[in-house]
Amino acid sequence: MKASASKLSVVCVALLCSHAACVSSGGKAGGGKAGGRKWKSKGVPGQAAYTGKDKAISPNNLIANATFNDGTSLPWTVSFTAPGDGNAEIVDGALCINVKNKGASNWDAQLRHREMTIQRGRSYDVTFKAYASAQTRMRAKVGQQGPPYREYWVDTLKLDTTPRTFKGSFRMTSENDPTAEFSFHVGGNLAYKVPEPFRVCIDDVQLLDPDFTRKEEAAPDAPPAVLVNQTGYLPGLAKYATVRTDAREPLAWRLLDAGGREVLTGKTNVVGRDAPSGDNTHTINFSAFAGTGKDFVLEVSNEKSHPFDISPEIYSKMRYDALAYYYHNRSGTEIKLPYAGKKELTRPAGHLSDKEVPCAPAAKCDYKLDVSGGWYDAGDHGKYVVNGGVSVWTLMNLWERSKFVTKNTKPLEDGTMNIPEKGNGKPDLLDEVRWNLEFMLKMQVPDGNDMAGMVHHKIHDKEWTALGLAPQDDPMPRFLYPVSTAATLNLAATAAQAARIWKTLDPEFSARCLDASVRAYEAAQKHPAMFAKPGGLGGGPYDDDHVEDEFYWAAAELWITTGKGEYKDAATRSPNYLKLSAYLKDAKEAGIPSPLTWQDTGALGTLSLLTNPAPLSAADRKRAEESLREAANAYVQLIEQRGYRVPMSYGNTNKAPWGSNSFINNNLLLLGVAYEHLNDRKYLDAVAQGMDYILGRNAMDQSYVTGYGDRPLVNPHHRFWSYQVDKRFPKAPPGAVSGGPNSGLEDPYVQAAGLAGCAAEKCFVDNIEAWSANEITINWNAPFAWVTAFLDDHSHTPPPSKAAPAAAAPAKGKAKTARPAKR
Ligand code: 9MR
User: Fold this and answer.
1) Is residue 600 lining ligand 1, measured as CB closer than 6 Å?
2) Disulfide check for 170: which of 41, 53, 153, 659 has CB 3.0–4.6 Å away?
3) Which residue has the higher pLDDT, 634 or 816?
């Protein structure tokens, strides 16, 4: 399409003052902000007052932050594409990009502003100030944020140290663009004259449309000082709230029912500084109240919590929403009603071209494979065997645990989930898992090739695509990436697990899985050190160069399934044998408390050995149980040390890892296993408390789950659930859990959100652009699904002591599987 009419007149107004002297009273406004969210002050301890949103120069300005006067840049973000490198900061009230490496292309170093619609037939005036640390050029443009990158207005400007005002105008002749961006490119050849490092600054940016009037959004209320599980509590299990306060003495609290009647009172426990959150805290233990009802509120010194329920039903729907995540993210099939739940969540089948995917040059193969189907990994459209492995394992473990440990598979059987396979006579949970297993099987190199039996690490787009992209519209070519030992062992392990699960349900599928597993295991032995590399474009790396744990996991699964000596020998000789460690060893997050990640999979072997009735000897089972007890006790101890009572800490550096919420959910999974195997009540209460953190009893006052809580997760990073960037796309369905706080601050949005130096559990913002803190993935929803299923299964467990306080109504409802099976 033709570019729209464009003219630019550069007004070289040499300002009368140096840029340093031009700063208005703004500068850095302190506080009032966490995770990029600004709120009204309610005198919440630790939260400074909101200082007012930066006023756009004109109400007709599409640019939401024109002057940077409050010291922040959002929604402006910086973007570097390797080898481009640098950062952005507010200097003297202007937004500056510091370029350490200008990269190869103009756009390798850029500042950009999204979240605006450029409308057909309207006229726009552009004005901004710009200057640089030395003579260079800048390309300013208004245009599409993704391919084909149509430009509505563009010009290349010469900059030097003198601040100048530039003006331009254009009429939009293209279709409305609801995801347009205003960007300033300063990389590549634009910077041919200037030595690195250099700096380019912009200020007072206007994109005026006389027919547009900015609606001022009311700042949200300050988070309450009394933090609770915003969905609610199970009547018989531990119930805690956290109070954010500097008070040194215990404070009086009241539990009020929906009618405002006091049903329980008490005094807080002073915990003090909670390092991971940076908050001063007290806790409230209201476990003594075992009644049920809706909209309870906890009150401390006139501060009220969000309302919450106390009910055995808290997790009854959530457990299925957590599993529905997988249907919504199926590739290669139409997502339709009634399964999608809402019309707007339906979509045509995505990536049908995955039926014939060629090898990337690095894969050194010349065939094409049908790798259609499976689940998309996350907000991106990649499909990765390594991450698929831990995800299907977790869901299959939920099945095996229900079959052998609690001996109740009813909630997972046919007809329990809203998926197309419902009614086929097979358990719905397994139907969902099979969707991804079938894909993983297709990733194995066919016989007759050099690498036969090995498994391709991943398939994904050649380059990253933009947000606001439905899978069926992805225009990017996709490739098979090289085989890896880790992916091969992921298939060996999970296909062995599947082979035993489907043995009678579907003998043909079971045999196919076992054959693939054995071939994969043999191939991995032949190629024990083929490692996926870190980095890369268009997809995640899932790099892993330590596979002793995967070898053990695969051997353990094959031993359980076949009983064969060769696998037994491999498993029992492994240093991982019967081990469950509370702290990671083999992942890049070594030292962080968690039993497992996609990269550290040794625990999966031991957990499968514990879950299945055979082949462990009684003595070895005992050893594994001791290991389990030790790890579970470490997590219980962590809960006791925390103001937010969550089994998590962040090592000496106090830095939250990428996907920290998944570490917590995996810790809860281990605690759940401990409860069901060791029959010690404290582990059950620990699981409930950890889930309170995920559902709102945390320093961000954030329910990290879509659709649940007074402050639910709303804007996870997802290309299709991208309503936040483009109203033509749907909002996320309920039941998706965010990766959560991540101190790494890897993406431009969190970098611009003023999060630098954030306390570990405050490195979070609920924005779709925040891909390093707010993505969702199959391996994070899996332990969440496991744990919500566990809690629902134990939702009728009575309190440890039958003596409930006078005000408490007796818990109603019949017991589900309140009792863990004894071995
Ligand atoms: O969960 C992954 C995390 O452990 C890694 O540190 C990070 C960077 O390699 O990648 C995460 O996984 C992402 C993957 O690479 C691509 N799809 C989205 C995943 C979640 O953010």
Assistant:
1) no
2) 153
3) 634
**Residue 170 alpha carbon to ligand 1 centre in Å:** 40
Q: Are 320 and 428 in contact (CB under 8 A)?
A: no
**Residue 187 near ligand 1, beta carbon < 6 Å:** no
Specify whether the backbone of 448 is left (phi greater than 0), alpha (psi in -120 to 50) or beta: left
Question: Which ligand 1 atom sits closest to the C-alpha of 659?
Answer: 1
Q: Are 244 and 44 in contact (CB under 8 A)?
A: yes
Q: Is the peptide bond before 148 cis (omega within 30 degrees of 0)?
A: yes
Residue pointed to by tokens 């003052």: 17
Amino acid at 271: V
Q: Residue 740's CB: how many other CB atoms inside 10 A?
A: 29
Residue carrying the six token digits 């005036």: 125
What integer is the mean pLDDT of 414-418? 98
Q: Which residues are catalytic?
A: 380, 717, 766, 775
DSSP 139-150: EEEEEESSTT--
CA 361 / ligand 1 centre spacing (Å): 23
CA gap 153, 169 in Å, rounded: 8
499 close to 560: Cβ distance less than 8 angstroms? no
Mark out the alpha helices in 374-427 (DSSP H runs): 385-404
CA nearest 68: which of 113, 108, 109, 98?
A: 113
- The interaxial angle of helices 660-678 and 618-641, nearest 10 deg, is 130
Output the residue whose Cα is nearest ligand 1's atom 14: 540
Q: Which residues on adjacent β-strands are paired with residue 233?
A: 310
Report the candidate in 732, 725, 723 with the shortest Cα–Cα distance to residue 781. 732
| Token representation of residue 641 | 């040390």
264 phi, psi to nearest 5 deg: -165, 145
Section 289-294 average pLDDT: 96
CB-neighbour burial class of residue 210 (10 A; exposed 0-12, middle 13-18, buried 19+):
exposed
Segment 806-817 mean pLDDT = 37
Which helix (H) or strand (E) segment holds residue 129: the answer is strand 123-132
Most informative mutation of 542, 544, 596, 661 for ligand 1 (most atoms within 8 A of CB): 542
Pairing assessment for the beta strands 232-233 and 308-310 based on DSSP bridges = parallel
Query: CA 254 to CA 11: how far, in whole Å?
Result: 64
In short, whether 384's Cβ falls inside 6 Å of ligand 1 is no
**658: Cβ below 6 Å to ligand 1?**
yes
541 lines ligand 1 (CB under 6 A): yes
Other beta carbons within 10 Å of 243: 28
> Among the atoms of ligand 1, which is closest to the Cα of residue 380?
17
The residue written with tokens 């464009």 in the block is 6
The tally of CA atoms less than 13 A away on the side-chain side of residue 537 is 12
Q: Whose CA is nearest to atom 5 of ligand 1?
A: 658
Please confirm whether the linkage preceding 75 is cis (ω < 30° from 0). Answer: yes
List, as one string, the DSSP characters of 545-604: ---HHHHHHHHHHHHHHH--HHHHHHHHHSTTTT---SB-SSSTTTTSB-S--SS--HHH
Alpha carbons 220 and 271: distance in angstroms, whole number? 28
Tokens standing for 686? 């620990």
Cβ-in-10-Å burial (0-12, 13-18, 19+) of 265 comes to: middle
Q: What is the C-alpha separation between 275 and 762, in angstroms, rounded? A: 11
Most informative mutation of 375, 377, 749 for ligand 1 (most atoms within 8 A of CB): 377
Residue 276 has pLDDT above 50, yes or no: yes
Interval 197-230: pLDDT, tens: 999 999 999 999 999 998 877 776 777 799 999 9
* Cβ atoms 444, 519 nearer than 8 A: yes
Best residue among 387, 666, 717, 738 to mutate for probing ligand 1's pocket (most ligand atoms within 8 Å of CB) is 387
Q: How confident is the model at residue 56 (pLDDT cuts 50, 70, 90)?
A: low
Q: What is the pLDDT of residues 355-371, one digit of tens each?
A: 999 999 999 999 999 99
